[in-house]
């Protein structure tokens, strides 16, 4: 019985000793990396930091010898984008727990989170790699495997030469697996859980958001888009944050920045806000942008532009704007040309006008168009001035058709617009570079609706707007906002 027990213990000991002990002189170096990864101070097979050590084929646990082949049946089990198993990890097998070959992401972290100083150590070219905590390792020039397979023949690696380090971890961009490369083992330490306070402020110093972010984390602002009250001559649109977002290694403050757009504030003296008794309470101007009378055509303006042009095609102006969703006030021709409280109607505004008014084709001071009469008896006149395209000095379909932009986009090339002739009218999409009319709208006789609320109106064209007991409200996804932009439900 005693002999059997000793035999069983011997078998267990042999099993536990499958992996060799870490060689003398090998150290785990904490570089202060965010992942907590610790790097060996020397390569696999080396006895000093400046030595290259042994070369290994990817998936082989013994150094390269003549006649070796990665087609050995032991390794044909790896295909696609597989990763090494512990039994085929040369670092794990030769040095034992907890060592292993690094991942491509750990190599990227070493490259990007440390400073690299080219130097020599005992006559060997390489780099002193200094971590965020100022601890260092020396890595000699060479190519180093990571544990990721690119395809059935190639695996990913990192090369370190006079041009510093580059991790080749794009699928198919790697060394053939039977090449001999070096290995710098890693092991997992304890991740750094340090956090720092990141504060977001408006440009007037108002704190918009304050949160804690883990070391090396990326700041993220999750609040409402910052706004700045417009001035008599200037409109402000949020442009981003300063300084630029960067990995967090200390408390940080980011301040909102704004693009300023000069307003012209020059509506004609005879512009009127016409209440058509619409359910939303929206008021329509009695003339187009650029006009001086209701029957005047005014400006032909391309969508997302502010002024008329001599040439309208898909290579100028709005066609170069990269897929905007809807207008912002700084590119709203009604707001910039006429000032507050005017803005271009949304798709929903235009549909409301079509569905809730009586449209009568008529001629007014020699201009053909529609007299649009609300249920309260008030009316506006929309002249049929066609549209502009290319170099044509005369509008296309003048006196027979009318085209009016909304602020709502349809695709990267089209935006929503009102189209009509003497027998039909609809709100549909058309090419953004066409020159069309703009008929401004507003919600109040004054500027009591805030810029943030106007932005909600413009950027959510399907939102329901309505008046209740003399007050304006906008319903967005069952959330109710008042004229100041405050949520009330």
What is this structure's SSE topology?
Blueprint: H1 2-16, E1 28-30, E2 37-40, H2 90-95, H3 104-113, E3 115-121, E4 124-130, E5 136-140, E6 142-149, E7 154-161, E8 164-168, E9 175-176, E10 186-188, E11 195-201, E12 207-214, E13 234-242, E14 252-262, E15 273-275, E16 283-285, H4 333-338, H5 347-355, E17 358-364, E18 367-373, E19 379-383, E20 401-409, E21 414-421, E22 425-431, E23 441-442, H6 451-459, E24 464-468, E25 471-476, E26 479-482
Parallel strand pairs: 11-14
Antiparallel strand pairs: 1-2, 2-10, 3-4, 4-5, 6-7, 7-8, 7-9, 11-12, 13-14, 15-16, 16-23, 17-18, 18-19, 20-21, 21-22, 24-25, 25-26
Summary keywords:
single chain, 489 residues, mainly beta, Immunoglobulin-like, 4-stranded antiparallel sheet, 6 helices, 26 strands, disordered N terminus
Number of helical segments with 4 or more residues: 6
Please state the overall shape, judged from the principal axes of the Cα atoms: elongated
Number of domains: 3
Q: Based on DSSP secondary structure assignment, what is the total number of beta strands?
A: 26
Mean pLDDT: 82
The share of residues in extended strands comes to 25-35%
Largest sheet: 4 strands, antiparallel
- The oligomeric state of the chains shown is single chain
**pLDDT under 50 segments (min length 5)?**
1-20, 67-74, 317-323
Whole-angstrom Rg:
35 Å
Terminal Cα span: 81 Å
Proportion of residues in helical segments? 10-25%
Global structural class: mainly beta
């Amino acid at each position: 019985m005693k002999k059997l027990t000793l035999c069983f213990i011997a078998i267990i000991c042999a099993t536990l000793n499958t992996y060799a002990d870490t060689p003398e002189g090998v150290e785990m170096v904490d570089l202060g990396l965010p992942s907590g990864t610790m790097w060996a101070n020397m390569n696999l097979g080396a006895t000093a930091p400046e030595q290259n050590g042994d070369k290994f084929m990817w998936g082989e646990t013994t150094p390269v010898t003549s006649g070796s082949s990665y087609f050995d049946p032991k390794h044909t089990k790896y295909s696609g984008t597989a990763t090494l198993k512990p039994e085929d990890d040369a670092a794990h097998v030769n040095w034992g727990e907890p060592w292993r070959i690094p991942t491509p992401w750990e190599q990227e972290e070493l490259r990007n989170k440390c400073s690299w100083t080219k130097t020599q150590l005992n006559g060997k070219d390489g780099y002193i790699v200094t971590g965020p905590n100022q601890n260092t390792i020396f890595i000699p020039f060479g190519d180093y495997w990571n544990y990721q397979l690119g395809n059935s023949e190639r695996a990913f690696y990192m090369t370190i030469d006079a041009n510093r380090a580059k991790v080749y971890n794009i699928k198919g961009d790697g060394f053939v697996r039977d090449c001999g490369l070096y290995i710098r083992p890693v092991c997992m330490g304890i991740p750094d859980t340090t956090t720092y306070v990141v504060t977001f402020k408006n440009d007037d110093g108002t704190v918009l958001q304050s949160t804690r972010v883990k070391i090396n984390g990326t700041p993220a602002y999750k609040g409402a888009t910052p706004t700045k009250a417009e001035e008599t001559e200037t409109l402000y649109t949020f442009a981003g944050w300063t300084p630029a977002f960067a990995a967090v290694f200390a408390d940080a403050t980011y301040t909102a920045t704004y693009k300023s757009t000069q307003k012209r504030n020059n509506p004609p003296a005879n512009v009127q806000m016409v209440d058509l008794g619409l359910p939303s309470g929206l008021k329509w101007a009695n003339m187009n942008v650029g006009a001086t009378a209701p029957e005047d055509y005014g400006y032909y303006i391309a969508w997302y532009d502010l002024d008329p042009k001599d040439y309208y095609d898909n290579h100028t102006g709005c066609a170069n704007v990269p897929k905007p969703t809807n207008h912002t006030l700084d590119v709203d021709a009604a707001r910039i040309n006429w000032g507050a409280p005017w803005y271009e109607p949304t798709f929903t505004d235009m549909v409301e006008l079509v569905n809730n008014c009586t449209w009568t084709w008529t001629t007014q001071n020699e201009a053909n168009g529609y007299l649009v009469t609300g249920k309260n008896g008030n009316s506006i006149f929309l002249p049929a001035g066609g549209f502009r395209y290319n170099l044509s000095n005369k509008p296309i379909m003048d006196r027979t058709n009318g085209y009016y932009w909304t602020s709502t986009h349809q695709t990267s090339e089209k935006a929503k617009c009102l189209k009509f002739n003497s027998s039909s009218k609809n709100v549909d999409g058309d090419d953004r570079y066409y020159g069309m009319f703009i008929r401004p709208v507003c919600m109040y006789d004054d500027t009591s609706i805030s810029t943030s609320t106007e932005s909600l109106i413009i950027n959510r064209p399907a939102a329901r707007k309505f008046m209740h007991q003399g007050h304006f409200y906008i319903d967005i996804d069952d959330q109710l906002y008042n004229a100041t932009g405050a949520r009330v439900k």
